[in-house]
């Protein structure tokens, strides 16, 4: 029997991440080679024409799994029946804008989108927020979707996770596939904590193999945490293909499960584990089983890790307090 297509709504579809993302979704890399998809593209009116151009190119690829493309400039119809929502479109920080201004501007985007998801998305909807500040944007959307389980609102930390894997693999001269049990905690910002204390390389402790705490503290962590800024500096634009790749990885693992014997990093509402206040959308070491994330429990957190996790969680708490004061949640 032919499978019913999965509706995937992508916001900011005409942007640079959108351009790197849509072709991979349509080719089957998001949900697997047996799952047909329908794309629902949301853009602001001035960018609809560009989204139409991308849709023409998608048609021209003749992807066997792509069963339709619809383009919207209104969140309500765009999220109607959505099974997956990739919230990429966001207001970028411009000159002179403070973090509070950015949060407020994004509240104007993620509040109505949360409401639209609540009103019309499919019962099994899964939402991944990519647009920055991703964790707090996800919190805003989630707060406006009271009928949807909060755990279905995620923020993307997979790019940070992949960056950490890559940096550690380079340092140790191994393949990224040799590394297991790496984690990035906290916020998708410079305060994030890429943690190798539990990581294993070909079954042995990664930290011992690195054998240099100063490298971890002074090079590895800042390189991963500030990689987004380094890409902007080098390209003159923020990461796009690597961000799209991470979104594919995140949703793929969420829906289809993480491999046995390993974990990944994902931000979703805290259940209070590891002292992270309940409800904050913070990154944890996580596995996905049966379509749900589970936090990896009972890890020993050393004093250095505790301090770094607390600092990033503190930043998330402040962002939550700011959007609360602005009446956005
Ligand atoms: P971009 O400026 O190229 O594209 C953004 C698109 O969003 C534009 O086409 C714009 O018209 C659209 N848009 C704006 N408001 C919208 C709305 N209300 N509804 C629908 N669409 C809307 O930006 P980009 O490079 O694609 O990046 C998108 C976002 O992703 C940025 O916020 C960026 O900072 C963020 N990002 C996050 C990560 C991460 O790891 N979480 C990594 C890279 C980039
Ligand atoms: C990234 O991590 O590459 C982006 O979040 C950077 C940015 O500010 O857009």
UniProtKB/TrEMBL annotation:
Keyword Oxidoreductase: yes
Substrates-to-products reaction catalysed: (S)-malate + NAD(+) = oxaloacetate + NADH + H(+)
Catalytic residues as annotated in Swiss-Prot or TrEMBL: 188 (proton acceptor)
EC annotation from Swiss-Prot or TrEMBL: 1.1.1.37
Key words, A-Z: NAD, Oxidoreductase, Tricarboxylic acid cycle
PANTHER family: MALATE DEHYDROGENASE
Family named by the database record: Belongs to the LDH/MDH superfamily. MDH type 2 family.
Function: Catalyzes the reversible oxidation of malate to oxaloacetate.
Identification of the protein by name: Malate dehydrogenase
Organism this protein belongs to: Streptomonospora halophila
Gene responsible for this protein: mdh
């Amino acid at each position: 029997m032919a499978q019913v297509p999965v509706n995937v709504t992508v916001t900011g579809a005409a942007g640079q991440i959108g351009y790197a993302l849509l072709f991979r979704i349509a080719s089957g890399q998001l949900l697997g080679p047996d799952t047909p998809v329908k794309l629902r593209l949301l853009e602001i009116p001035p960018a609809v024409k560009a989204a139409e151009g991308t849709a023409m190119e998608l048609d021209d690829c003749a992807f066997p799994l792509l069963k339709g493309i619809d383009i919207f400039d209104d969140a309500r119809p765009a999220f109607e029946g959505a099974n997956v929502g990739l919230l990429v479109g966001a207001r970028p920080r411009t000159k002179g804008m403070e973090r509070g201004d950015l949060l407020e501007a994004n509240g104007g985007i993620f509040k109505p989108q949360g409401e639209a998801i609540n009103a019309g998305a499919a019962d099994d909807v899964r939402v991944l927020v990519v647009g920055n500040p991703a964790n707090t944007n996800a919190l805003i959307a989630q707060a406006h979707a009271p009928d949807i389980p909060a755990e279905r609102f995620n923020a993307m930390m997979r790019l940070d996770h992949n960056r950490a894997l890559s940096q550690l693999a380079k340092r140790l001269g191994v393949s990224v596939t040799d590394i297991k049990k790496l984690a990035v905690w906290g916020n998708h910002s410079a305060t994030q904590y890429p943690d190798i204390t539990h990581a294993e390389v070909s079954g042995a402790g990664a930290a011992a193999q690195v054998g240099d705490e100063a490298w971890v503290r002074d090079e590895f962590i800042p390189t991963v945490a500030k990689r987004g800024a380094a890409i902007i500096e080098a390209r003159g634009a923020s990461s796009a293909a690597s961000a799209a790749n991470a979104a594919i990885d995140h949703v793929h693992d969420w829906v289809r499960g993480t491999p046995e014997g390993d974990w990944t990093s994902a931000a979703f509402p805290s259940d209070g584990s590891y002292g992270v206040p309940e409800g904050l959308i913070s990154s944890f070491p996580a596995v996905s089983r049966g379509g749900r994330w589970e936090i990896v429990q009972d890890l020993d957190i050393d004093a250095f890790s505790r301090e770094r996790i607390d600092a990033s969680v503190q930043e998330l708490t402040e962002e939550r307090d700011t959007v609360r004061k602005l009446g956005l949640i």
